[in-house]
Structure formats: structure tokens, C-alpha cells
Structure prediction request, 344 residues.
Amino acid sequence: MADKLDTVWQLEPHTKAKHDILRRYLHGWFPVLSRYNGRIIFLDGFAGPGVYKEGEPGSPKVALEALLQHRYDLAKNNCEFLLVFNEQDPDRYAVLNDVIEELKQGEWPPHVKVSKLNENFQDLAEDIVEYLDEQRANLAPTLAFLDPFGYQDTPIEKIKRLLSFNKCELLIYFDYNSANRFGTAGNVDEHFEALFGTDEFKDAPPAGDPERGKFFVDLYERQLKAVCEFDYVQRFQMINRDGRTPYYLFYCTRSLKGVEIMKDAMWSVAPDGGYRFSDRLAGQDVLFQDQADTQPLRKALLAEFSGKTVSIAELERFVLVNTPYKKTHLKQKTLAPMSVILAT
Ligand SMILES: C[S@@+](CC[C@H](N)C(=O)[O-])C[C@H]1O[C@@H](n2cnc3c(N)ncnc32)[C@H](O)[C@@H]1O
Prediction:
């Protein structure tokens, strides 16, 4: 989708928050996946120029630095890390190329491979799927980061075909603002049908209805599960300076470990557990330690498991899948105080 931005543009605080989530997630994902696989892929389908106006890193640099500066010696895992950066716009691609080449100056670890592409994402996805079909092969475990402008470039069927292999995951931008504005306008239905993989978006409550936005977000989550067969989906809301929500970030996986790592990443950016970031808070002194109130978790655990014998593993699964809490909230912050109460 064409945009009006310069080749390189200003970094917004919510974009930095998105990068913080990506960085934290990759930090956990790289060592876990590389331990059991010969090759893993980070596919940045809408990579941008790799840098922002004041020199801040774009997603390609965030990903590469998360790998190259990792505190563990990931070379030990005998895994090849392939990072694919794709950007369609020729001028942005040229800047991206320079950014990556500059990073590659000096010593380069042989287990890290980089591929830079200047393609339309949909064509690229089609080529990958055709190649895999021909070879009767699965895509190596991949995290696809799909961060377009707008809603026209990420048809859900393409994502389904590309990421159908069990160990593939998705971090994707959902254009909440456009869905709200144009979702029931009737003149761009084919794009929304492709985005959602259904025409149910036409049933959204009318503009002005407080449930309208939630309807679109819930529908997208349902479709990511139903069409792409992701077992777990986490969402994160981005709010701009006007208090409006331009987009949500959706994380999709079939792995509980992935959910655990992503929840840690999202809580680190939103320590109140709200799964949202507001540009209005950017630059203000906010508490960065975990501010979780675990009372609701305690109540949920009692409601679900009261009178039953359950393993810690079952409780952890419940926390990860059925509550907004992190796994690390369970033992010390919730079970330990509960056992004191039970014992007295
Ligand atoms: C939101 S920006 C990406 C920002 C980048 N991921 C980051 O976090 O630093 C979206 C980028 O996608 C590019 N783009 C737009 N349509 C595309 C398409 N169909 N295929 C690939 N890239 C596209 C745009 O030129 C733009 O640079």
C-alpha cells in the first residue's frame, strides 16, 4: 500500500514499544528454538529502511542486534540463523542494504546468514510456498514479522499457507484504525475479506457503537486461530498521543513456550499487565518493575481448581492460556501467599 512518508521517517514511541517487544521476544526465542533445530528463520516481510530519522534502529537492526549481542554463545547450538529482510520500496531497500552492510563490517559469525530482498511480500510468500510444495518440504521454524502499512498486504490465506508448519509463528500488525473506519463502508470489501478470510466483518456494530472496535479485534483473533490454526494468540494495543488506537500487534503460535516468552516481553513493555502502550506515557517516569495485582489470579485459580489435586505444570498452563498473567506470577506472587493463608 502506498504511503506518504519519506524514505526514512520519525520514530513514534509506540513503534519503539513494538521494537522492545520484538527484541525481548527474540532474546528468548533464539536460544530456545536453536537448541533443537538445525536452522531457524526470522522473516521480516515489511522491513522498512532499517533506521529512523534520528538514527534509531528499525526492526531489521533490532533483530540482528538481538542475535549478535546475545548473552549466550548461540554458535554452540550448531544452528543456522537465517534472517530475511524484505522491503518493496526501492529507496527504502537501498537504505536498508546500507544499514545491513554496515552491521556486517568486521568479524561475522558463520552461523548467522542474512538475505535482503526487494519484493512485494505477497509475491515473496507465494514463491516460498511454491518452492516448499515442489520440494515437499516444510518451512524451517520461522517467526514471521509482518508489519505493513494498512490492511491490504497481508491476506490471511497467504499467511496460513506460509506458516502452516507447526513450529512457525507470527507477529503481525492489525490495522485497527482502518477496520474501524472502513470495515463497513462497503467499498473495500475485497481487501477486508482477504484480511479476515470471512465476510463477517460486515456484521460489525455501526460507527459510534462502543463495541465496534472490539468486534474487529475479536474477529481477527478468531480468524487467526480458525484459518491459520494457531492455538494461542496474544494481542497488544498501541495508543497514540490523541488517545486513539492505530493498531494492535498480534502474536500467534502453537507453542506454550512461545506464549510464555511473549507474555514476558509484553509485560516488560506494559508492567501493569494491561497489554497496551500509550504514546502519552512516553518519556514520563513510569514504574518499570512488575506491578501485577495477583488477586484476580488467585480467585481464578480457586474457582477452577478448588478441592482438586493439580500439578504445578497444569497450573502454569492454566495461567498462560486462560489468564493475562505470566508464568512467573504463579509461584511466588500467588501460590506462596495462598499457602500461608491455607496454613493459618
Ligand atoms: C511499517 S513499515 C515497516 C517498519 C519496520 N518493520 C520497522 O519496525 O522498523 C512498512 C514497510 O513496508 C513496506 N511495504 C509496503 N508494502 C509492501 C509490500 N507489499 N511488500 C513489502 N514491503 C512493503 C513499506 O515501504 C514500509 O517500508
Q: What stands out?
A: The beta strands are 39-44, 80-86, 112-117, 142-146, 169-174, 232-239, 247-253, 276-278. Residues 301 and 318 are 8 Å apart (CA to CA). The domain at 13-281 is CATH 3.40.50.150 (Rossmann fold). The radius of gyration is 21 Å.
